[in-house]
Amino acid sequence: MLLHAILVLGSFTGIRIGISSVKAIAESLNIPVIDVSSLEALAYNTQNIDCKTICSLIDARNNQVYCGIFDNNYNLLEDYLADDINNVLEVLTKYENIVFVGDGAVFHKDLLNIQNFTYDNFIHSKNIAKCAYKKFKNNNTKTADTITPLYLRKSQAERMKQKNG
Prior knowledge:
Oligomer: single chain
Shape: globular
Distance between the termini: 48 Å
Number of strands: 6
Strand order of the largest sheet: 5-4-3-6
Order of helices and strands: EHEHEEEHEHHHH
CATH class: Alpha Beta
CATH topology: Nucleotidyltransferase, domain 5
CATH architecture: 2-Layer Sandwich
Structural class: alpha/beta
């Protein structure tokens, strides 16, 4: 039996609850866990598009995006980014033949000057499963006690506390 977790970019509480649930189930059944990020799952929407690089973008409002940059075999090329779209564009200058996917790509389509774009910008469970299966075949599994949430930036409360000293 195999259990996989999707580490969804979203509410901090929702992520904590989801990870805690996965940990409890995996620990009680003594089964491995495979983590799949939302950005990874989005990248799999490009399966029938010829490209060298895949850029998954999730809109984070106020010109901010969550970004994952992958090769055409869905291997992560850079650390995930949570940054201003203009800073992400700077990072992307070293890549060619990029296909963009995600609601961040839709929102910033004009700014990105996109020529290669997918109109399928939703996270699909079949793509989570494909990604998890690839990781499973490559023995890229974790134990329940080692899986942790993937936060690309601090919560609003943490940012406000840091700002106010």
